[in-house]
Design goal:
Layout lengths: L1 H6 L13 H19 L5 H12 L5 H10 L4 H34 L19 H14 L4 E2 L5 E2 L1 H4 L27 E2 L5 H9 L4 E10 L11 E11 L4 H16 L5 E8 L2 E10 L16 E10 L1 H4 L10 E8 H9 L12 H4 L4
Parallel strand pairs: 1-4
Antiparallel strand pairs: 2-3, 4-5, 5-9, 6-7, 7-8, 8-9
Helix pairs in contact: 2-5, 3-5, 4-5, 6-11
């Protein structure tokens, strides 16, 4: 009967043989039963929209056809019964659509969210501790007029050794200390960032003030304080009036900016082929204040980096006049600085990618 009623919505009420209120009520009861059965089969947005258009669509919906074919042409005595039945049907259909919308929303979004529950903490990535240390060092030197340059990690013996006044027989050039690349025509992995001193002075006239961050490679057995890959920061300043006092002032400024205003410095005589005179820079222990502890091996001082005035022989490789020019250079291990500043005792922790270690330095 419900199927018959749906098919006959295009006929007039008189043509359906309905002539009383009871007949109208029975007809609309069949339609509501059919609508309820179809509403129960709604499973998603598409079937919901199809149901709405079929029953409530303005152009060809069943309720619209009832209004056009049953209500408008009905005899006056039947209009009130058909109108009442149509209103009740529309109310029931609209309720079915709203109920289906809520059911579909629950299916799509899942159970309601309890806003009182704590949120999910998403881990946020940060720069590696070595990268953070590099950025701090660069900030310090950029503030006093240095610029940052970078160079190749694969070098020639000329730039890595010869032009830096390191003679052919020097132990550092032995393959026990240096990684030579087989089949490359004598190329090697740079053992320091100092080759960029030569490359920069070849291209730029004085004055020159640069720092050179980067990875370097040496044949060291990995342990708590050594590795075959480590990080270095080279510095060079060359001009017409630079003295050893200028060099000492830059060292003091850098150390206090990095480790605090109370840290003291001292210079110890040393030897490097590309500086003359050469000096090791020591700092008073920032842990014990110079009184002696395990960090400074109870000496009160910590060796920080090597440095000195540029050897005049180096100027000959780049066409600078050693009688008119002077300058200083220094090279420091960034890994060592990070270990001192953050109290890290094992160099290998930088390379093991242990998230528990990395999360300590956001």
């Amino acid at each position: 009967m419900a199927t018959d009623a749906l098919q006959k919505t295009t006929l007039r009420v008189e043509q359906l043989g309905v002539s009383s209120q009871a007949g109208v009520d029975a007809l609309f009861s069949e339609l509501r039963s059919a609508a309820d059965a179809e509403a129960a089969q709604i499973r998603g947005p598409e079937s919901l929209e199809a149901f709405r258009v079929k029953w409530l669509g303005r152009r060809d919906g069943i309720s619209s056809r009832i209004s056009e074919n049953w209500l408008k042409p009905a005899p006056p005595v039947m209009k009130k019964f058909v109108g009442a039945g149509l209103n009740q049907l529309r109310t029931a259909l609209e309720a079915s659509v709203e109920s289906a919308k809520n059911s579909v929303a629950d299916i799509e979004t899942g159970p309601p969210i309890d806003l009182s529950l704590p949120g999910i903490e998403r881990p946020v990535g940060t720069s590696h501790l070595i990268r953070q240390t590099y950025e701090e060092l660069e900030r310090i030197f950029l503030a006093i007029g240095f610029s940052v340059v970078e160079g190749p990690e694969m070098e020639t013996p000329y730039y890595n050794f010869e032009a830096l006044n390191i003679p052919e027989h020097h132990p550092a050039r032995d393959n026990m200390d240096t990684f030579y690349i087989e089949g490359s025509g004598g190329h090697l992995l740079r053992t320091h960032t100092s080759p960029m001193q030569i490359r920069t002075m070849e291209k730029e006239p004085p004055p020159v003030r640069i720092i050179v961050p980067g990875k370097v490679y040496r044949r060291d057995n990995p342990d708590a304080t050594h590795g075959f890959i480590f990080h270095q920061l080279e510095g060079l300043a060359v001009d017409y009036d630079i003295t050893f006092c200028d060099f000492r002032g830059v060292v003091d400024y850098f150390v206090r900016a990095l480790l605090g205003p109370k840290v003291k410095t001292r210079l110890r005589p040393s030897y490097f082929p590309f500086t003359e005179p050469s000096a090791e820079v020591d700092v008073s222990c920032h842990v014990c204040g110079g009184s002696g502890c395990r960090t400074c091996k109870f000496s009160g001082w910590i060796e920080l980096f090597g440095s000195g005035m540029v050897n005049p022989a180096v100027y000959g490789f780049v066409g600078y006049d050693p009688k008119r020019l002077s300058g200083f250079a220094f090279g420091m291990g960034v890994d060592r600085l990070a270990m001192l500043r953050y109290g890290i005792t094992d160099l290998q922790a930088f390379f093991q990618n242990d998230v528990r270690f990395l999360r300590q330095f956001p």
